[in-house]
Amino acid sequence: MKNSVLHPAASRFHADHGWLKSAQTFSFHGNYDPQRIQFGALRVLNDDTVNGGKGFGRHPHDNMEIISIPLEGTLEHQDSMGNVAVINPGEIQVMSAGTGIYHTEFNKDADEPVTFLQIWLYPNKLNVAPRYDQMEYASGDRHNRFQQILSPDPDDEGVWIHQNAWFHLADLDEGFEAEYHLKNNDNGVYVFVIEGSIEVNGQVLAARDGYGFWPEPAVAVKALAESALLVIEVPEKW
After folding, report:
1. What pLDDT is stored for residue 237 in this prediction?
2. 59, 113, 188, 227: which has the fewest C-beta neighbours closer than 10 Å?
């Protein structure tokens, strides 16, 4: 497809720090490829596994929208705004770093690993007041449908961020076909397969593959096996 990028799972960057194993779709820290910096406003998509009781020590962020989606295990968060929280599978966490924030992220369980998606988006407003939020979503609401978990509107379904972006999760039965309709036809779409195998607009994707394309008013998805996926709709330019 014209104006598309395919990121097979095996092509991701990898970092192994012992306590942390990270598979990185885009350039991150010491892993750099000038052809894989971002997809529109989507800057980071890391698939992280942290050993029991370990985690990221206190570190800063600014002017970035940071989203965490636990897949297995529990993640403990603390930040310089005084927030202390535990994030579980079935929840989404968001931070607008804005003018600056410090935080830590640790595996709450001393024995079992935690696996989560760490996602960064460039904001459409700089130097906003830092903010934190998290939300639980009902897993049944994404069975054979696209469940919205993030948007730019505080009054809409899911958490909100300072960017014209939308996140949707879907759990699809084998053979099920669905269409995702863009909220803004000028946006791009990045599809990340969490589990299973799907076909997206004719492109076959396996677990942990990523596929981005634009502009496309609708996205046709067919599950080739029982599958879970994350659809990230973001501006190509902002």
Report:
1. 85
2. 59
